Amino acid sequence: MVLILWLCVALWITPALVLAEPQRPTVMSTNLCADLLLLRIADPAQIRSVSRQSQDARISPVAERARAYPPNRGGVEDLLYFKPDIALVYQGWMGRRHAERLAGQGIEVIALPYTKNWADALQTARTIAARIGRAETGEALAEEFERRMQALARSGHERAPSLLYLRPSGGTAGQGTYVDDLIAQLGLRNLAAEQGVKGWGRFPLERLANTPPDVFLLGYFDQAQSPARSAYGRHPLLRSLLERTPVIELPGQAWGCGGLELLDVAEQISEQLADIERNPFRTPSP
Fold it and tell me: Which domain CATH number covers 42?
């Protein structure tokens, strides 16, 4: 009788063990770029800590969500304190020289690659999701985001306006940057790339006077800048152009790090551009 009872208990427990989800690794992120990805793909129960940057609403689009987790400064001592199974860091993280010591404590350090385009962002999401035991979630998210981005692309029959991305310092984004790729994804033209700018460069004011864009795409103009760093943005020539040229302005924290958050940026650009095209004679307000 006792044997039969034990067999019944074993048969009842075994399916539950088989159906139970595997233990997923705990994870912490040590910089804003890693935070943005982790908060999208991880199970909340996996997250040990996020960087302090992610909780600063001035630079982080996910500040409210990030405040649900303990903050860290991104140092080796933080990793040793929180003891995650996996720590997400950036490529230049100085603590990487301590990787062997951290591995001895059971902490795997994964450096996120720099993204140059939308395809990179999708692949990074898939790769990191798989590393933290969330492969299905990462794949589903990447597929959904890819579909949404493709839906935003303009028809080849429509005239593609030229956009010029500008920061208050005069900085712009030329060929080979994720901003350039995003503009192309939307079926638009990047004036900086057309004018020969490669990478993260500067758009000379004299060239701007002779070759203005159809639409300005402003970034970080909402954030306080030192006089030296904002002189370009305050120049009378630029201010005059902004008064008579359509403007798309996004908050600086919206741009993130060129990851999945670029879909949010793309949707905002598409929405504002559609509004400009519906109301072409409305006075822009930079």
Answer: 3.40.50.1980
